[in-house]
Amino acid sequence: MAVTGVLLVLFLVVHMLGNLKIFVGAAAFDHYAHWLRDLGSPLLPHTWYLWIQRAVLTFAVVGHIWAATSLALRAKAARPVKYAHRAKVQGSYAARTMRWGGVIILLFVIYHILDLTTGNLNPVADKAHPYANVVADFAPGRWYVTLFYTLAILSIGFHLRHGIFSALRTLGQQTEKGQRRNRAIALGVAVVLCAGYLSVPFAVLTGLVS
Amino acid sequence: MNLTLRVWRQKGPQDKGRMVSYQVTDVSPDMSFLEMLDMLNERLTLEGEEPVAFDHDCREGICGACSMVINGTAHGPQKLTTTCQLHMRTFSDGDTIDIEPWRAKAFPVIKDLVVNRGAFDKIIQAGGFISAPTGSAPEAHSTPVPKADADEAFDAATCIACGACVAACPNGSGMLFTAAKITHLGLLPQGQPERDSRVVNMLAAHDEAGFGGCTNAGECTAVCPKGIPLTTIGRLNRDFIKASGKR
Ligand code: HEM
Ligand code: SF4
Ligand code: FES
């Protein structure tokens, strides 16, 4: 859970930085997408780097889901008779929604790849110019797409807040002081990633990026 | 005070069990929760009914026998308090109080509110000990222990093995209990020889007993009557990573 999660968080950070290039301009953003495809050249042939990254991410996502599923099945087996009355004592919303939140994020990623990578669900679907695809995606008329992206990214924020805390704990964070730092890091990363990802659709929606 | 109790009644391990309502009247706010149940049981006995079976021993918060989920919270609404130390003044006249046993596959119900916590013994047998020559007590200064370590080990050692952590855990995990033992012994010089095998064997016994896996949800520490901190689980994890690296 923790190891695959850390890989996914690293991807989220890099992907967010890449997305923010949209504020530099259409040429810079499109150039970035082309650069991604030639990363590692001349050592790696065209798009090889991207495929290696896709392989690593797929491995991480599958491993993450596999670990989560086995934990959920163990939890179900560990309490065969449910409580008639169950109070939420600690009540961390983020911790409680990890499993369903994860499912929502998975559905989002599938939609997102069909939208901006393969273009199947994108109104423009111009592979050479991802800038145009993004702008078309979040046009005010397609507010429902923006809404879905927003909800998905907020669930990612909650998922990260508990996920990062939990991963650091699993990897052996063991002091009170470290725990305070740990919670602050988890919250900070979640907020920064949410803000970074949300800035793009809202910039398009408000016409800042067009 | 007059109260409505809804109590889990189950004749034996095979019985399906159900919640049964009882009215209790003239409860003094100064009674402990268990005294209130004693009062109910006296009445049930006089009426020729089977009294409600529940575990208890010291009634002073140190043995860990008492075990009830009260209104959905293990050991009831008051923090850092066992059921036996909970007083009726924390409730109000006219309240309805739901009382259930610890719910976990590893803690099967024996009768009513009594569960078998033998699974914890299995975990202790797997590694919750140190090897030391018996006989007269050794000279206290022969093995110095840093004060901070001694304090933290002692805090972890206050775990009374009540099982509330398991009862509260959304995963039915016994990780806080196991981690308390790992922390208690792992911080002291006497615990070092078995440190690696301890964490590996205790975790194996934990999983073997049918407890769920830990997802650091934190419900355990919130109900723990001894305030065993979540950081102990980090110590367990770190010991486990180290031990796995050496194998
Ligand atoms: C609103 C914020 C986001 C925008 C504007 C955005 C935009 C894009 C774009 C334009 C691409 C295609 C890049 C290219 O082919 O060169 C892409 C790919 C991708 N995005 Fe996002 N993204 C956002 C949020 C996210 C989030 C939150 C996740 C993860 C949960 C995510 C996961 C992915 C993945 C996995 C790919 C790569 C698919 C592949 O190439 O195989 N994205 N994104
Ligand atoms: S860790 Fe706390 S809740 Fe769990 S068994 Fe020990 S004293 Fe009880
Ligand atoms: S009866 Fe001993 S701790 Fe409650």
Structural class of chain B: alpha+beta
Largest interface: A-B, 36 and 42 residues
Assembly type of the shown chains? heterodimer
Question: Can you write the helix and strand succession of chain B as a string?
Answer: EEHEEEEEHHHHHHH
Q: Shape of chain A from CA axes?
A: globular
CATH class of the largest domain in chain B: Mainly Alpha
Helix content of chain B: 25-40%
Keywords (chain A): Membrane, Transmembrane, Transmembrane helix
InterPro entries (chain A): Cytochrome_b-558, SQR/QFR_C/D
Protein name (chain A): Succinate dehydrogenase
Organism (chain A): Planosporangium mesophilum
Molecular structure report:
- The complex is a heterodimer of chains A (210) and B (247).
- Chain A has 210 residues and is mostly helical.
- Helices cover 72% and strands 0% of the residues of chain A.
- Chain A is built from eight helices and no strands.
- The radius of gyration of chain A is 19 Å and the shape is globular.
- The model of chain A has no long low-confidence stretch (mean pLDDT 95).
- Chain B is α+β, with helices and mostly antiparallel strands and 247 residues long.
- Chain B folds into two domains: 109 residues, Roll (Ubiquitin-like (UB roll)); 117 residues, Fumarate Reductase Iron-sulfur Protein, Chain B, domain 2 (Orthogonal Bundle), CATH 1.10.1060.
- A five-stranded mixed beta sheet of chain B has the order 2-1-5-3-4. Chain B has a two-stranded antiparallel sheet with strand order 6-7.
- In chain B, a hairpin with a 2-residue loop joins strand 6 and strand 7.
- In chain B, helix 3 packs antiparallel against helix 5.
- The longest helix of chain B is centred in the C-terminal third of the chain and has 16 residues.
- The model of chain B has no long low-confidence stretch (mean pLDDT 97).
- At the A-B interface, helix 3, helix 7 and helix 8 of A face helix 7 and helix 8 of B.
- The structure holds protoporphyrin IX containing FE, iron/sulfur cluster (SF4) and FE2/S2 (inorganic) cluster (FES).
- The site of FE2/S2 (inorganic) cluster has 13 residues of chain B, from loops.
